[in-house]
User: Which sequence fits this backbone?
């Protein structure tokens, strides 16, 4: 698994397409795709939105299950948590949950890329 | 040594900082806890951190304001967590230093550092979510931003943690053991 992180509107998705030779039609949008798409797709972007939906729909997301079923997946996520503590409880829980899952994902990942201004830096090497 | 560990919320910076203390291996260890237990959610966070520290041999000192007079003598390594809470407490709690919090906190950092071999300060990146906050929250961001910058100036090592991965902005993490 490869994890790509960065702020919003930084060109993460395009970077991942280029970097890993993935075509747009081979990728799934975490904000819209069916839950099980994550187990089949080459790349899932908006992974933070996927986590948010799983919380809203009360499905427990399991990184272990993902690694077992789709070990080569590229996960693209916004890097959350660089703001003031949100006033809304769900927002706080979402930020916390996404952080913990992304920490686990970064630990399990073969590579972690961080994208700023469309430029990627490999912060964990395979 | 003075070390600054910063990062976003939920980035794994606390666990990283604790493991840094273990790597420095200069006992005894003191954990300076700054989160005031306002409500159940705070208590849960405090519990989670306590569980992480279990078996790491830290004494714990609660310090919500007035760092410069906190009883941190007699320790090899002091881990202060988290600057974002300490700054908010100083600004808003009764008995806090309010407008003078930047200088008060920096004086506290200097004093704690003089009394121990290593001081590790955990802080928080709250500066880039693109939301225009109210003037009071902006003031809090400005104070914490300044505190972070000033500590980084003094620090031997400054690390930003991104989802458990350390990005070194100042100093050399690989040579940490040589600096014990």
Assistant:
């Amino acid at each position: 698994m490869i994890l790509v992180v960065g702020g919003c509107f930084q060109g993460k998705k395009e970077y991942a397409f280029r970097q890993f030779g993935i075509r747009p039609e081979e990728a799934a949008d975490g904000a819209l795709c069916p839950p099980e798409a994550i187990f089949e797709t080459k790349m899932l972007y908006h992974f933070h939105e996927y986590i948010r939906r799983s919380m809203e729909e009360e499905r427990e997301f399991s990184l272990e299950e993902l690694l077992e079923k789709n070990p080569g997946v590229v996960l693209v996520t916004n890097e959350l948590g660089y703001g003031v503590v949100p006033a809304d409880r769900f927002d706080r829980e979402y930020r916390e949950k996404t952080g913990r899952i992304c920490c686990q994902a970064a630990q399990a990942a073969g590579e972690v890329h961080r994208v700023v201004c469309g430029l990627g830096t490999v912060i964990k090497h395979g | 040594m003075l070390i600054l560990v910063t990062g976003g919320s939920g980035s794994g910076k606390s666990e990283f900082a604790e493991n840094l203390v273990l790597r420095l291996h200069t006992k005894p260890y003191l954990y300076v806890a700054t989160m005031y237990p306002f409500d159940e959610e705070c208590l849960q966070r405090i519990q989670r951190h306590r569980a992480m520290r279990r078996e790491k041999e830290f004494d714990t000192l609660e310090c919500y304001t007035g760092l410069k007079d906190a009883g941190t003598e007699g320790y090899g390594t002091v881990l202060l967590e988290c600057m974002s809470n300490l700054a908010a407490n100083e600004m808003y709690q009764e008995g806090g230093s309010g407008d003078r919090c930047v200088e008060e906190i920096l004086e506290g950092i200097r004093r704690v550092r003089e009394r121990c071999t290593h001081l590790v300060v955990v802080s928080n990146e709250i500066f880039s979510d693109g939301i225009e906050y109210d003037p009071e929250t902006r003031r809090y961001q400005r104070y914490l931003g300044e505190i972070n910058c000033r500590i980084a100036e003094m620090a031997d090592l400054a690390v930003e943690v991104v989802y458990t991965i350390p990005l070194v902005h100042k100093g050399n993490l690989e040579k940490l053991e040589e600096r014990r």
Notes: Chain B touches chain A through 23 residues (CB under 8 Å).
